[in-house]
Automatic annotation (TrEMBL):
Stretches that traverse the bilayer: none
Protein name: ABC transporter ATP-binding protein
Domain of life of the native organism: Bacteria
Domain ABC transporter: 7-235
InterPro entries found in the cross-reference section: AAA+_ATPase, ABC_transporter-like_ATP-bd, ABC_transporter-like_CS, BCAA_Transport_ATP-bd_LivF, P-loop_NTPase
GO BP annotation list: L-amino acid transport
Length: 235
């Protein structure tokens, strides 16, 4: 349903102690969309994802997801509402195997994939199923971090720089995976520094500066926005 956003963020402010990091972020993500947050280092992209998850408790504004008010939910309830967060450092269990990492997170909603389905989507993880997290390459760790969220049945993925530090061929593979997830109806909110990658997979963009959104546009307007992106991002 295009009319109601699946995830809606209104006038979101967030603080680290006394330091005011977000100054009224507004954004919406509709079901099935892939939306990318762009912006230079330190503008608040990661903070926006963390504040949505409830990992930053000093926040004001409105956040609704799937009709639920997230502002007043404790952290574990936010995850259980169906939001899967993959932080930049990926957050897999380093000393557990691929299999164990996949099996451990509880299923929180209907529609989670079985481990077999996940291995169809990520055949390289199947080959590595008995390897410990620490033994995986950066690309394999990123895929495992995404895969373990898919098993839980989350309805939206918040991904923080999934291509960070990965070789071009692996970046391409992550792009194909996100395209496959999108075809299956997954909703994705992505923070990405790799503009070329983001421009291939996103339906819409939000450009952040100084803790707020300064522009938003659909992928079709990208050619018209290149001057702005050049000025703000240097791309
Ligand atoms: P990056 O890609 O570098 O992570 P970003 O756009 O995601 O950039 P944030 O990490 O959200 O930016 O940071 C926003 C602001 O909050 C920055 O000024 C940063 O220095 C500050 N900040 C981030 N984390 C903390 C923290 N744990 N304590 C204090 N200030 C922080």
């Amino acid at each position: 349903n295009r009319a109601e956003p699946l995830l809606s963020v209104r006038d979101l402010n967030a603080w680290y102690g006394e330091s005011h990091a977000l100054h009224g972020v507004n954004l919406e993500v509709f079901k099935g969309e892939t939306v990318t947050l762009l912006g230079r280092n330190g503008v608040g992209k990661t903070t926006t994802l963390r504040a949505i998850m409830g990992l930053i408790r000093k926040r004001t504004g409105q956040i609704t997801f799937d009709g639920k008010d997230l502002m007043h939910l404790p952290l574990h309830r936010t995850a259980h509402a169906g939001i899967g967060y993959v932080p930049e450092e990926r957050g897999i269990f380093a000393t557990l195997t691929v299999d164990e990492n996949l099996i451990l997170p509880p299923v929180v909603a209907d529609g989670g994939m079985s481990v077999e389905e996940i291995f169809e989507l990520f055949p390289n993880l199947k080959e590595r199923r008995n390897s410990q997290g620490t033994k995986l390459s950066g690309g394999e760790q990123q895929m495992l971090a995404m895969a373990r969220m898919l098993r839980t049945g989350v309805k939206v993925l918040l991904l923080d720089e999934p291509t960070e530090g990965l070789a071009p061929v692996i970046v391409q593979r992550i792009g194909e995976l996100l395209a496959t997830l999108k075809k299956r109806g997954m909703t994705i909110l992505l923070v990405e520094q790799n503009f070329r990658f983001a421009s291939r997979i996103a339906d819409r963009f939000y450009l952040m500066e100084h803790g707020k959104v300064m522009a938003q546009f659909p992928v079709g307007e990208l050619p018209d926005r290149m001057n702005l992106l050049h000025d703000v991002l240097g791309v």
